[in-house]
Amino acid sequence: SWVEVGITADNPPDADNNQPVFDPAGWPSEITLFCDTESSSANRCTTAKINLLDFFSDADGDIQYISVFNDTSDAIDDNFAIVISVGGDGIAHYNPADMFFYDPDMDSWTLNDVIFIATDSFNSKVNSLPVSFIVVPIHFSIEHPEQSWVEVDGIMVYSGVGLPGKQVSVLIGGLPVNNTIVSEDGTWELGIPASRIQGTSVTPQFSYSGELSSGERIHLGQPEAEGTNWSKVAFGSVFVLVLLAALVYFLVEIEEEDDEYEKSPETFSAEPEEPDDPYAWAKSADSTPSPIVDNSSQLEQHEDHPGWSWDPAKEEWAPDPDYHGPK
C-alpha cells in the first residue's frame, strides 16, 4: 500500500548546491523474512540488508547520512527507526528478532511502508519509495516420502520447511549420511542413498539447529506386507485343500462305523419279557399248536460274528443252532 508523505527539501539558493537524487530502478517494494517460532535464539530470523547508496546519489558527493523516516502523527512507525539501522556505509539492516524487546507477538514484526531519507551537507533531502518487510513465522518440519521402502539402488528423498540458511543433516546410527542448506524460500530437500542403509531397515534422524528429530522407519526393498508373497499364498491354498480332504474322510469314516454298529448283534435289544400269567395253564390247554417253520435254511452265517446268524427275513440276528463253541 502507498502512504502519502510530505517532506520539505531545503535547497539554499545561495549555496549553489545540488539536491540528492533517488533512483527507483531495482528498488524492492517488499522483502520477505522468516522467523522460527520454536526458537528463542537471537538468530531465529533471517535478516534484510539494503545498500541504500545503490539508489541514493548526490552530484556534489556530500550525502551526510541516510535515516528512517518517522511520521510523528502516526505511532505505528515509532519503532522503525529503532530496529532498522543504517550505517555510515549506507547499508540498512533489519533483524525482526529485535522487535521482540518491544512486542513479543511475531505478527507485529512485519514493518509496512518504511521510507528512507538521504540528507546532504546543506540539509537538502530526498526520500525513497516505501518498502515493506514481511515476516513469515515458520517451524522446522519433515515431509516423509509416500512409501516406506527404497529400491536397493535407489534414493529415499525427504523434504520440509526450515529457516533459510540453516543446515539440515540426516544421520543413520549416529553417523552423518547427507546434509543440505535451507533455501531462501524456506524449503529444503535431501536424499538417503539405499547403499547407506545397514541391514533390512533403519530409522533416520534429522539434525537441525542443534536438535535431533527421528523420522519414520525405512526398509531396503519392498516389505512383504506391501507386496504379494506368492509362496505363502500357495502354501495357504494347499493347507486349505488338505484340511477339506481330512474333513471329508473323517465324515465318511463316521458314517461307515455307524452302519457297522447298527448291524452288530449287540445293538439289538432282546425282546421284552412278558410278565408271568397265572392263567397260562388254562390258555395253553385251549391253544392250538402252531406249525413249526424251519428257517434255519434261510439264516446267514458271518465269520465276524461266530455263534450268531443273520435272518434276512426278519432283519435281525439270531443264535446259530449249529454253533457248538470254539474248537
From TrEMBL:
Compositional bias of kind Polar residues: 285-299
Basic and acidic residues composition-biased segments: 300-327
Residue ranges of the region described as Disordered: 260-327
Protein name per the record: Bacterial Ig-like domain-containing protein
Organism: marine metagenome
